[in-house]
Amino acid sequence: MFVLELSYTAPLDRVDAALDAHVAWLDRQYEAGVFIASGRKNPRDGGVILAVGDDRAAIEELAATDPFVVAGVCAYRITEFIATKTSDALAPYRQRL
Questions:
Q1: Tell me, what's the pLDDT at 54?
Q2: Which of 15, 74, 76, 85 could lock onto 68 through a cystine, CB 3.0 to 4.6 A?
Q3: Which positions of the chain have pLDDT values less than 70?
């Protein structure tokens, strides 16, 4: 599992200009089963995405296609972790050491 932390690198008016494309990109990743949760940070200086996958390189490549990245308005910090304990709703994503 991966935590993708977005940090805005441009003013919010530039972020907002790319927002519709970013949301459409998010929707495609949810449909593909890669993203399981996302939202903006408070205060609004970026966002957080929870993603599932076995390949860090694939997640990094995917993040590079985010319209926010393409527009140069955010940077990603990607943290991989092993989700050994989850709520029942996330049981399909539990991992073993």
A1: 87
A2: 74
A3: none
**Would you give the distance in Å from CA 77 to the centre of its chain?**
9
Which residue has tokens 């200086």? 45
What does the alpha-carbon distance between residue 73 and residue 16 come to, in Å, rounded to a whole number?
A: 10
Which string of DSSP letters, residue by residue, matches the chain? Answer: -EEEEEEE-S-HHHHHHTHHHHHHHHHHHHHTT-EEEEEE-SSSSEEEEEE--S-HHHHHHHHHTSHHHHTT-EEEEEEE----S--GGGGGG----
Closest C-alpha among 43, 33, 41 to residue 4:
41
Count CB neighbours of 48 within 10 A.
14
Structure-token pair, residue 43? 């205060």
